[in-house]
Design a protein that fits this description.
By secondary structure, the chain is α+β, with helices and mostly antiparallel strands. It is built from three helices and six strands; from the N terminus they run H-E-E-E-H-E-E-H-E.
């Protein structure tokens, strides 16, 4: 029998390798609801010290949801558009530019506003980037 924590750590390393972000750039937020496990994978941008939702998955336990997240990470670039969003927070006048992969504009905005008061953000533009 495999130690669940060892298996989760291995999948986590695989996810981090596929995404290719630096150390301490991903946060794994697990939740439990109605017998399901939810994973919100959050990225941390060190340039403007903000976090954003990368993707959300649901499964029956942590290993299942981690495997689903790994599958998503391996394939999302082929299935989603990329968006450039220019925004600022209400307590900072600096204009920020962030990039999101999402199925549509609303999903990109949801990733931007994840886990924060949407009224604390001002969005100046959302552009769907051309595919290459």
């Amino acid at each position: 029998m495999t130690d669940k924590n060892i298996e989760i750590a291995k999948i986590q390393r695989d996810i981090e390798e596929y995404i290719g972000l630096g150390p301490n750039s991903l946060i794994y937020n697990f939740g439990e609801s109605e017998g399901n496990t939810t994973l919100h994978l959050v990225t941390v941008n060190p340039r403007h010290n903000q976090s954003f939702l990368f993707h959300k998955e649901e499964g029956y336990d942590k290993i299942d949801v981690m495997k689903k997240m790994l599958s998503y990470v391996k394939n999302y670039k082929d299935k989603q558009s990329t968006y450039t969003i220019q925004w600022k927070t209400s307590d900072d006048d600096t204009l920020h530019t962030s990039y999101f992969s999402a199925k549509n504009v609303q999903s990109a905005l949801d990733k931007l506003s994840y886990d924060r008061d949407p009224n604390s953000l001002t969005v100046f533009s959302v552009i769907m980037n051309p595919t290459t």
